[in-house]
Amino acid sequence: MTKEYQIEENLIKQLKELKYVHRPDIVDRKTLEQNFKSKFEALNRVRLSESEFLRLREEIIEPDVFAASKKLREKQYFQREDGTPLHYTLVNIKDWCKNDYEVVSQLRINTENSHQRYDIILLINGLPVVQIELKKLDVSHRKAMQQIVDYKNDPGNGYTNTLMCYMQLFI
CA–CA separation, 18 vs 21, rounded Å? Predict the structure, then answer.
């Protein structure tokens, strides 16, 4: 019988063949946010101070999945500390191949009320957009779906108050 970690390794291998970059160094909220900051700066050709990034992060975290989805597709505005405007995007919609595609495994997002670990997360420009819940073949698909629902319904979960708010697809 195939174990869950073997399924995970095989999936990561397939994603790497599709040019996803495996990021075993992204393990928690802090490293996820650091990665997003560097991807954001590269995509928008800008350098943000730490206080600007913290303010930007607070502005882009959106508890409503539809509003978050809209932010993924549209140009946004941010005022820099010196008063200059920054028009930015989170995803390059016009030239999608210029986005960075990464795969993360066993990501932990700990908030005040939850301590969840996600099997596989796909990132676009550092933003988590796809969650893949893996189960052994002898485990019901319903169990995987229920785990996603339980994570989503957990009070204080990361889907409403972290970059996980950009999650668009659950597999």
Answer: 9
